[in-house]
Design a protein that fits this description.
The chain is elongated, with a radius of gyration of 29 Å. It has 2 domains: 180 residues, no CATH class; 117 residues. About 3% of the residues have low confidence. By secondary structure, the protein is of the alpha+beta class.
Length: 342
């Protein structure tokens, strides 16, 4: 196929991430050679395993679904099918149907609908020559698809969208955007790139959930500090418990966020590292990391102040009890003195 033609066949891949409370370690694994169980770079974390494969009818088309688990608690549903014209006007509506079907599958695993991450990858391999020719001929349509827009975009917006790309071979190019990506690869090698997009979406989902959890804990602390100063022993225990939890969250956050980047950086300037860096910038993962670190620091400061406050309250209560005890003993002594005198 020449890129100047109006019809461009391709493969549409849609995936949706969600967090579940189920024990994914106990789920069975489906062995399959055509889907990689781990990315192509060495010892990457986190690991994934395939839970099940199935076919589903979506808008009259038979679609392949792969359900995978990123241990210990994240489910990803991946739907894919070949399209005769991947840039057809009906593709966006069909993609929305695929996402809705993926969301139903996530519901089967009890995933929280408030937190999910969706992403679309348009894979094109049936072409000859430099894919830059395709961008020249269909760049406006490609940019609109990446933005999930049916309207024609401004030329400057089209240029800005298409400029976020990476070329490795002479006849390939990957264009990265917030909601989707286009991969041109004449050899049809898409799996390794898709895995990188999935890992980046996993990082984004974890960041969103952790950010929300930190907000909840901050509000809980403020409510705890606003309670009338009674039962300081119990409240002090609650604060110490939350301090322990926040330390565990910080440790887990550091391990999860840095493990992937550390392993990918081991490859140096190889293609996978460059592409993941490009995706990370587009997803603003560094900004998420900074914001989460600032909230963790704020929470630690608040809990430190709360602990000191409750410690002071606790000491004051003990002193009050001791003084009260001495006062009672004094009254008893005075009463005994008068009774003895009589």
């Amino acid at each position: 196929m020449e890129c100047e033609t109006k019809t461009i066949p391709g493969k549409l891949v849609v995936f949706l991430f969600g967090e579940t409370g189920l024990n994914l370690d106990a789920t069975s694994v489906v062995e399959i050679k055509t889907v990689k169980s781990a990315p192509s770079y060495p010892d990457v974390i986190p690991k994934q395993k395939i839970i099940k494969l199935e076919k589903r009818q979506v808008d009259g088309a038979e679609v392949s679904f792969v359900v995978k688990a990123y241990l210990p608690d994240v489910v990803v549903v991946e739907a894919s099918l070949d399209l005769g014209d991947i840039l057809a006007d009906a593709t966006l509506e069909f993609k929305r149907s695929l996402i809705n079907e993926c969301r139903k599958v996530l519901g089967e695993f009890g995933c929280d609908p408030q937190f999910d991450e969706e992403y679309s990858v348009y894979c094109i391999s049936d072409y000859s020559g430099d894919p830059e020719v395709c961008l020249s001929a269909h760049g406006d349509k490609i940019a609109a698809f990446l933005k999930n827009e049916k309207i024609a975009l401004d030329e400057e917006e089209v240029r800005a969208t298409l400029s976020v790309n990476l070329k490795y071979g002479k006849d390939d190019i990957t264009i990265v955007d917030w909601d989707g990506a286009f991969i041109f690869d004449s050899s049809g090698d898409f799996e390794s790139n898709i895995e990188l997009f999935e890992i980046a979406n996993l990082q984004l989902l974890k960041s969103r959930i952790l950010d929300y959890d930190l907000d909840e804990r901050l509000e809980k602390t403020l409510r705890l500090m606003g309670v009338p100063k009674r039962l300081p022993i119990i409240r002090s225990r609650e604060v110490r418990k939350v301090v322990k939890e926040i330390i565990e969250i910080r440790t887990q956050s550091i391990l999860e966020s840095e493990a992937v980047e550390r392993n990918i950086k081991l490859i140096g300037d190889w293609y996978s590292a460059k592409l993941y860096s490009l995706i990370s910038k587009k997803f603003h993962l560094d900004s998420w990391k900074i914001e989460i670190k600032e909230k963790l620091d704020t929470l630690e400061d608040v809990y430190t102040m709360a602990t000191e406050n409750f410690s002071v309250s606790y000491r004051a209560t003990l002193e009050f009890i001791i003084l009260g005890g001495w006062f009672v003993l004094l009254l008893l002594y005075v009463a005994e003195f008068f009774f003895t005198k009589k």
